[in-house]
Amino acid sequence: MKRYAYYLSCINESMTKEVDRSIDLWQKDLDIEMVKLHESTCCGGSNLDYVSPKHFALVNARNIALAEKLGLDLIVSCNTCLMTIRTAKKKLDESPELRREVNDILKKDGLVYKGTSNVRHLLWVLADDVGFEAIREKVRVPLKNYRIAPFYGCHILRPSAVLGKDDPLEPSSLDMLIEALGGTALPYEHKNRCCGFHTLLVAEEESLNVAAEALKEAIDIKADFIVTPCPLCHTVLDGYQAKALRQAGIHTSIPVFHLSEMVGLALGYSEKQLGIKRHIVS
Amino acid sequence: MTGAKEAHTEPKRDITLRVHRFNPQVDGKPYFDDYTIQVEKGITVLRALNYIKEHVDASVSFRAFCQAGICGSCGMRINGISKLACTTQVWDELDRCKEPGVIRIEPLRNMPLIKDLIVDMDPLVDKMKHYSNWVVSSMPESRMGKKEFLVSEEEFQKYDKATDCILCASCVSECTILRAHKEYVSPAILLKSYRMNVDSRDSIHDARLGELVKDHGVWDCTHCYRCQETCVKHIPIMDAIHGIREDALEVRGVKDSSGAKHAEAFMSDIEKKGKLVEATLPIRTNGMAWTLQNLLPMAMKMIMKRRTPPPPPLVKPAKGIKKFREMFREMTEHVRAEKKSHKK
After folding, report:
1. Which of A121, A156, A175 is a domain's end point?
2. Residue B221 domain-assigned?
3. Is B334 on the interface with A (CB under 8 A)?
4. What is the 3-state secondary structure (H, E, C) of chain A?
5. Is residue A165 domain-shared with residue A266, that is, in the same domain?
6. Does residue A157 belong to any structural domain of this protein?
């Protein structure tokens, strides 16, 4: 059983509880264990870095140091948390002065940022550690009748200098996971585009236009559902779907699943167990 | 070793450029023409296009000038991605073709099309004017030529990378928000604005910043990083956008824009709870009236699905919050002291 430190994302603690709930269900089936970091705090959601770069470094050095204390990699299942914490890690690893300043404060809580733990997305753990072959062998209910549109979202791909796992132009890990689970990954132009989440409260019309485009393509290519590794993308594509499609004059709908729910379905868990009934679009 | 031998027998092969065509005077709608030509390894997309124009079809229209990645004229979408034709190798693109051996060539997006691969740059130039994308000297005219402007190394570092921009508009073409709303300021303009605003020789910082925080300005960027990823000069454009935001919060506070209020909420929530209090985020960003009007129907649906974020008192603080708060505040002291010493 391989162990990981698991970062608690704010959104998965409040609006998208089904993400962590599904991982809890199937982690043992894939021989992995996610040790939840209840001391971890909000990463700053790609905002704190410019509101206060120093606090941004401190908060995320602490998040990573909690994983380092356990000697485990830090696993994240929200794209923006992933990008944000990895950005902080890059800054800390590149600046001895920043590391020193932050560690001077962290040591008062018995913590130290060394840079020894990697920060990775749940999808990367499935792709690189568990492996698609092993996943294929564990599938109990293959998704063989499903045509699936893989929506990667931005912050698992860009900036590639910070993320670096998938080719931001032609990402493939989510496609390969879909195939390993027995589904059909559709060619989907919007796979590496934006969902519009980060401007929902600031420029709603623009955000909904962005979301509608992604939804429309998935509907046009006759996908059975969209799957995303990011709960923020899910919140727009599911929660704001009716509003976005109405604004675009489209009168239909499409279900949107979390990566963790899709894995759970193929491993034999029910929609109810996985919390899929909590989605706005059914 | 085969390297030397290969150098003498440069491979050649047939390739097809599938070129976007549209002449508004005669065409009802755009179409594609396929041009199949033989090219050698080492040929750029621009040279292939020039060959087609000279030897196959003189009517194909595109902009190009320096052929060396300096002037920024030949921005176009090659296999779907905005870049310069003159610095893009045909051989590299062959690996990225959806249909083997066929390279798609299309005009930049998010700007009006004039003909074939030529887009109208005027809307972008108008925005450069609107946001005063030049230095307005702080030196009285009477003293000009008599005294030098001294720019420190430290200051120059702030905008060194931003000055690499050649206005090729690749970032403009890839921008998510501009695609959603044509009034949006756009990434190239934000980069230029940042560059001017950190220049000590400039005198209109506050006025420029005042424009940047208005509707369709700096707060409308959705952090998708497409601009930065596509930049042909590898400029960290998001750093400039974040730089303007940091400056706006510092100089103007949160009073005049929902974007600033939204960003600031993260800081205060983290300090208080270590967690984001999502339930009140819309209210703190846009006020109660907006929230009721815009989000009430959705909130009802969310309540039905038990999906609503918990109200503030029920947001459980992160474990160890007391110690965390102390550390957070200690950093606040650091930042304060740093600013003080900077002012001196």
Report:
1. A121
2. yes
3. yes
4. CEEEEECCCHHHHHCCCHHHHHHHHHHHHHCEEEEECCCCCCCCCCCHHHHCHHHHHHHHHHHHHHHHHHCCCEEECCHHHHHHHHHHHHHHHHCHHHHHHHHHHHHHHCCCCCCCCCEEEHHHHHHHHHCHHHHHHHCCCCCCCCEEEECCCCCCCCCCCCCCCCCCCCCCHHHHHHHHCCCEECCCHHHHCCCCHHHCCCCHHHHHHHHHHHHHHHHHCCCCEEEECCHHHHHHHHHCHHHHHHHCCCCCCCCEEEHHHHHHHHCCCCHHHHCHHHCCCC
5. yes
6. yes
- From chain A, the residues in CB contact with B322 under 8 A are none
* Domain-located, residue B307: no
- Residue in chain A nearest B97 by alpha carbon: A170
**Count of beta carbons in the 10 Å neighbourhood of residue B164:** 13
**Model pLDDT, residue B1:** 42
CATH number of the domain encompassing residue B16: 3.10.20.30
Summarised one tens digit per residue, pLDDT across range A217-241 is: 999 999 999 999 999 999 999 999 9
Is A280's Cβ below 8 Å from some Cβ in B?
yes
Q: What is the pTM of this model?
A: 0.95
Paired strand residues for A257 = A227
List of chain B residues whose C-beta atoms are within 8 Å of the C-beta of residue A14? 278-279, 309-310, 315
Best CA proximity match to A5, nearest among A37, A27, A39: A37
Q: Which of residues 115 through 144 in chain A touch B, CB cutoff 8 A?
A: none
* A38 interfacial to chain B (CB closer than 8 Å): yes
User: In a 3-state reduction of DSSP, which class is residue B74?
Assistant: coil
State the DSSP H helix or E strand holding residue B333, giving kind and residue range, or none if neither.
Answer: helix B321-343
Domain count along chain B: 2
Q: How far is B204 from chain A (nearest CA, A)?
A: 22
ipTM: 0.95
